[in-house]
Design goal:
globular; about 15% strand; alpha+beta; two-stranded antiparallel ribbon; five-stranded antiparallel β-sheet
Length: about 250
Protein backbone atom coordinates (compact mmCIF):
# COMPACT_ATOMS: atom_id res chain seq x y z
CA UNK A 1 0.00 0.00 0.00
CA UNK A 2 1.25 3.44 -0.89
CA UNK A 3 0.45 6.80 0.63
CA UNK A 4 -0.15 10.01 -1.33
CA UNK A 5 1.01 13.42 -0.08
CA UNK A 6 -1.41 16.22 -0.94
CA UNK A 7 -0.40 19.85 -1.03
CA UNK A 8 -3.66 21.72 -1.58
CA UNK A 9 -4.64 21.82 2.08
CA UNK A 10 -2.98 25.16 2.69
CA UNK A 11 -5.56 26.82 0.49
CA UNK A 12 -8.39 25.99 2.91
CA UNK A 13 -9.48 28.19 5.78
CA UNK A 14 -9.71 25.80 8.73
CA UNK A 15 -9.84 26.94 12.32
CA UNK A 16 -7.74 24.12 13.75
CA UNK A 17 -5.16 24.82 16.44
CA UNK A 18 -2.82 23.29 13.87
CA UNK A 19 -2.93 24.04 10.20
CA UNK A 20 -4.33 21.35 7.87
CA UNK A 21 -0.89 20.83 6.31
CA UNK A 22 0.60 20.19 9.76
CA UNK A 23 -2.09 17.62 10.54
CA UNK A 24 -1.51 15.96 7.17
CA UNK A 25 2.22 15.80 7.85
CA UNK A 26 1.57 14.27 11.29
CA UNK A 27 -0.70 11.67 9.71
CA UNK A 28 1.92 10.84 7.09
CA UNK A 29 4.64 10.54 9.73
CA UNK A 30 2.46 8.32 11.94
CA UNK A 31 1.69 6.08 8.96
CA UNK A 32 5.36 5.76 8.01
CA UNK A 33 6.20 4.89 11.64
CA UNK A 34 3.48 2.18 11.65
CA UNK A 35 1.37 4.13 14.16
CA UNK A 36 -1.71 3.50 12.10
CA UNK A 37 -4.31 4.34 14.78
CA UNK A 38 -2.68 7.77 15.19
CA UNK A 39 -2.70 8.23 11.42
CA UNK A 40 -6.41 7.41 11.30
CA UNK A 41 -7.11 9.97 14.06
CA UNK A 42 -5.15 12.69 12.25
CA UNK A 43 -6.77 12.06 8.86
CA UNK A 44 -10.23 12.00 10.46
CA UNK A 45 -9.55 15.47 11.88
CA UNK A 46 -9.25 16.72 8.33
CA UNK A 47 -12.46 14.95 7.32
CA UNK A 48 -14.29 16.45 10.30
CA UNK A 49 -12.92 19.86 9.33
CA UNK A 50 -14.82 19.66 6.06
CA UNK A 51 -12.02 18.64 3.73
CA UNK A 52 -13.02 15.96 1.21
CA UNK A 53 -10.55 14.90 -1.41
CA UNK A 54 -9.84 11.63 -3.23
CA UNK A 55 -6.23 11.54 -1.98
CA UNK A 56 -7.28 12.15 1.62
CA UNK A 57 -9.93 9.41 1.49
CA UNK A 58 -7.41 7.06 -0.13
CA UNK A 59 -4.81 7.74 2.57
CA UNK A 60 -7.38 7.31 5.32
CA UNK A 61 -8.50 4.03 3.76
CA UNK A 62 -4.88 2.81 3.81
CA UNK A 63 -4.45 3.80 7.47
CA UNK A 64 -7.75 2.14 8.47
CA UNK A 65 -6.76 -1.07 6.68
CA UNK A 66 -3.39 -1.17 8.43
CA UNK A 67 -5.11 -0.45 11.75
CA UNK A 68 -7.45 -3.39 11.26
CA UNK A 69 -10.54 -1.24 10.73
CA UNK A 70 -11.80 -3.06 7.64
CA UNK A 71 -15.23 -1.44 7.59
CA UNK A 72 -13.80 2.07 7.61
CA UNK A 73 -11.17 1.06 5.05
CA UNK A 74 -13.89 -0.01 2.61
CA UNK A 75 -15.90 3.13 3.39
CA UNK A 76 -13.07 5.54 2.61
CA UNK A 77 -11.87 3.65 -0.46
CA UNK A 78 -15.45 3.87 -1.74
CA UNK A 79 -15.53 7.59 -0.94
CA UNK A 80 -12.26 8.02 -2.86
CA UNK A 81 -13.74 6.19 -5.86
CA UNK A 82 -16.85 8.37 -5.78
CA UNK A 83 -14.50 11.32 -6.37
CA UNK A 84 -12.04 9.55 -8.71
CA UNK A 85 -13.81 6.46 -10.08
CA UNK A 86 -11.01 5.00 -12.22
CA UNK A 87 -8.07 5.30 -9.83
CA UNK A 88 -6.18 2.00 -10.18
CA UNK A 89 -4.46 2.13 -6.78
CA UNK A 90 -7.75 2.66 -4.94
CA UNK A 91 -9.49 -0.09 -6.92
CA UNK A 92 -6.63 -2.53 -6.20
CA UNK A 93 -6.55 -1.72 -2.48
CA UNK A 94 -10.32 -2.00 -2.19
CA UNK A 95 -10.20 -5.41 -3.84
CA UNK A 96 -7.50 -6.50 -1.39
CA UNK A 97 -9.55 -5.38 1.62
CA UNK A 98 -12.69 -7.08 0.30
CA UNK A 99 -10.82 -10.37 -0.01
CA UNK A 100 -10.32 -10.29 3.77
CA UNK A 101 -13.93 -9.54 4.73
CA UNK A 102 -16.05 -12.09 6.55
CA UNK A 103 -19.04 -11.64 4.23
CA UNK A 104 -18.26 -12.65 0.67
CA UNK A 105 -21.56 -11.57 -0.87
CA UNK A 106 -22.54 -13.36 -4.07
CA UNK A 107 -23.06 -10.83 -6.88
CA UNK A 108 -24.54 -13.35 -9.32
CA UNK A 109 -28.11 -12.28 -8.54
CA UNK A 110 -27.44 -8.65 -9.43
CA UNK A 111 -29.01 -7.76 -12.83
CA UNK A 112 -26.20 -7.40 -15.36
CA UNK A 113 -28.16 -4.96 -17.52
CA UNK A 114 -28.55 -2.64 -14.52
CA UNK A 115 -24.80 -2.74 -13.86
CA UNK A 116 -24.20 -1.87 -17.51
CA UNK A 117 -26.81 0.91 -17.38
CA UNK A 118 -24.98 2.55 -14.46
CA UNK A 119 -21.56 2.24 -16.10
CA UNK A 120 -21.12 6.05 -16.55
CA UNK A 121 -20.94 6.35 -12.76
CA UNK A 122 -17.74 4.29 -12.77
CA UNK A 123 -16.08 5.97 -15.75
CA UNK A 124 -16.09 9.52 -14.38
CA UNK A 125 -17.65 11.41 -11.50
CA UNK A 126 -20.84 13.43 -12.18
CA UNK A 127 -18.90 16.71 -12.05
CA UNK A 128 -16.36 15.41 -14.56
CA UNK A 129 -19.18 14.42 -16.93
CA UNK A 130 -20.73 17.89 -16.55
CA UNK A 131 -17.41 19.63 -17.27
CA UNK A 132 -16.87 17.43 -20.34
CA UNK A 133 -20.36 18.34 -21.56
CA UNK A 134 -19.61 22.06 -21.18
CA UNK A 135 -16.33 21.76 -23.08
CA UNK A 136 -17.96 19.85 -25.96
CA UNK A 137 -20.83 22.35 -26.24
CA UNK A 138 -18.42 25.29 -26.44
CA UNK A 139 -16.26 23.42 -28.93
CA UNK A 140 -19.21 22.51 -31.14
CA UNK A 141 -20.65 26.04 -31.10
CA UNK A 142 -17.18 27.48 -31.72
CA UNK A 143 -16.76 25.27 -34.78
CA UNK A 144 -20.10 26.42 -36.21
CA UNK A 145 -19.14 30.06 -35.58
CA UNK A 146 -15.82 29.53 -37.35
CA UNK A 147 -17.49 27.75 -40.30
CA UNK A 148 -19.92 30.65 -40.83
CA UNK A 149 -17.17 33.27 -40.81
CA UNK A 150 -14.56 31.55 -43.01
CA UNK A 151 -14.54 29.05 -45.86
CA UNK A 152 -13.77 25.54 -44.61
CA UNK A 153 -13.55 22.00 -45.91
CA UNK A 154 -16.92 20.32 -46.70
CA UNK A 155 -16.46 17.85 -43.86
CA UNK A 156 -16.07 20.52 -41.16
CA UNK A 157 -19.84 20.98 -40.57
CA UNK A 158 -20.10 17.23 -40.00
CA UNK A 159 -17.34 17.42 -37.42
CA UNK A 160 -19.22 20.19 -35.62
CA UNK A 161 -22.45 18.16 -35.69
CA UNK A 162 -20.56 15.13 -34.39
CA UNK A 163 -19.15 17.14 -31.48
CA UNK A 164 -22.63 18.39 -30.53
CA UNK A 165 -24.06 14.88 -30.83
CA UNK A 166 -21.30 13.61 -28.53
CA UNK A 167 -22.13 16.44 -26.11
CA UNK A 168 -25.73 15.22 -26.03
CA UNK A 169 -24.68 11.70 -25.01
CA UNK A 170 -22.28 13.10 -22.43
CA UNK A 171 -25.17 15.15 -21.03
CA UNK A 172 -27.19 11.94 -20.65
CA UNK A 173 -24.25 10.27 -18.89
CA UNK A 174 -23.93 13.26 -16.54
CA UNK A 175 -27.65 13.16 -15.74
CA UNK A 176 -27.47 9.41 -15.09
CA UNK A 177 -24.48 9.81 -12.78
CA UNK A 178 -26.17 12.60 -10.81
CA UNK A 179 -29.35 10.52 -10.57
CA UNK A 180 -27.36 7.52 -9.35
CA UNK A 181 -25.61 9.61 -6.71
CA UNK A 182 -28.80 11.17 -5.34
CA UNK A 183 -31.39 8.41 -5.84
CA UNK A 184 -29.22 5.40 -4.99
CA UNK A 185 -27.26 6.27 -1.84
CA UNK A 186 -25.00 3.53 -0.53
CA UNK A 187 -23.04 2.78 2.61
CA UNK A 188 -20.80 0.30 4.39
CA UNK A 189 -21.34 -1.65 7.60
CA UNK A 190 -18.92 -0.34 10.25
CA UNK A 191 -20.02 -2.45 13.22
CA UNK A 192 -18.21 -5.73 13.79
CA UNK A 193 -21.59 -7.45 13.42
CA UNK A 194 -25.03 -6.21 12.40
CA UNK A 195 -28.28 -8.15 12.17
CA UNK A 196 -30.35 -7.80 9.02
CA UNK A 197 -34.01 -8.05 10.06
CA UNK A 198 -37.36 -8.42 8.32
CA UNK A 199 -38.74 -5.24 9.89
CA UNK A 200 -37.50 -2.00 11.49
CA UNK A 201 -37.49 -3.17 15.12
CA UNK A 202 -35.40 -5.33 17.43
CA UNK A 203 -38.23 -7.85 17.88
CA UNK A 204 -38.41 -8.45 14.13
CA UNK A 205 -37.08 -11.87 12.97
CA UNK A 206 -33.46 -11.92 11.85
CA UNK A 207 -32.61 -12.67 8.23
CA UNK A 208 -28.86 -13.00 8.62
CA UNK A 209 -25.83 -11.58 10.40
CA UNK A 210 -23.64 -9.20 8.46
CA UNK A 211 -20.11 -8.06 9.28
CA UNK A 212 -18.01 -4.93 8.86
CA UNK A 213 -17.05 -3.93 5.34
CA UNK A 214 -20.21 -5.20 3.63
CA UNK A 215 -21.57 -2.66 1.17
CA UNK A 216 -25.30 -1.89 1.17
CA UNK A 217 -27.66 0.27 -0.83
CA UNK A 218 -30.22 2.38 1.06
CA UNK A 219 -33.87 1.97 0.05
CA UNK A 220 -35.92 3.52 2.86
CA UNK A 221 -35.69 4.85 6.41
CA UNK A 222 -38.02 4.58 9.42
CA UNK A 223 -36.80 6.20 12.61
CA UNK A 224 -33.28 4.95 13.31
CA UNK A 225 -33.64 1.99 10.95
CA UNK A 226 -32.53 1.77 7.31
CA UNK A 227 -33.99 -0.55 4.72
CA UNK A 228 -31.06 -1.81 2.66
CA UNK A 229 -30.29 -4.06 -0.28
CA UNK A 230 -27.19 -6.24 -0.53
CA UNK A 231 -25.22 -6.82 -3.73
CA UNK A 232 -27.00 -10.17 -4.23
CA UNK A 233 -30.43 -8.49 -4.14
CA UNK A 234 -31.35 -9.52 -0.59
CA UNK A 235 -33.25 -6.84 1.35
CA UNK A 236 -33.87 -6.15 5.02
CA UNK A 237 -33.59 -3.60 7.83
CA UNK A 238 -30.48 -2.49 9.72
CA UNK A 239 -30.05 -0.13 12.63
CA UNK A 240 -28.71 3.11 11.17
CA UNK A 241 -25.87 3.39 13.68
CA UNK A 242 -24.28 0.24 12.23
CA UNK A 243 -23.46 1.79 8.84
CA UNK A 244 -21.57 4.73 7.37
CA UNK A 245 -22.72 6.49 4.21
CA UNK A 246 -20.45 6.68 1.19
CA UNK A 247 -22.33 9.70 -0.18
Amino acid sequence: MTIIIFFTLTCLGFTFAQTPIQIAQQAQQAYQQSRYADAVTAYEKLIQGGYHDADLCYNLGNACFRAGKLGKAVLYYEKALSLRPTDEATLANLEQVRSELTDQIDHSAAPEWWDWFLQPQWIMSPNAWAITFGVLIWLGMGLFWYIRRKPTAPWMPWVARGVLALAFFVMLAAALSYWHDHQNPSGVILSKEATLRIGPEQASPAIRTLHEGTKVGYLDKIGSWDKVRLANGQEGWLEGKSTGRIR
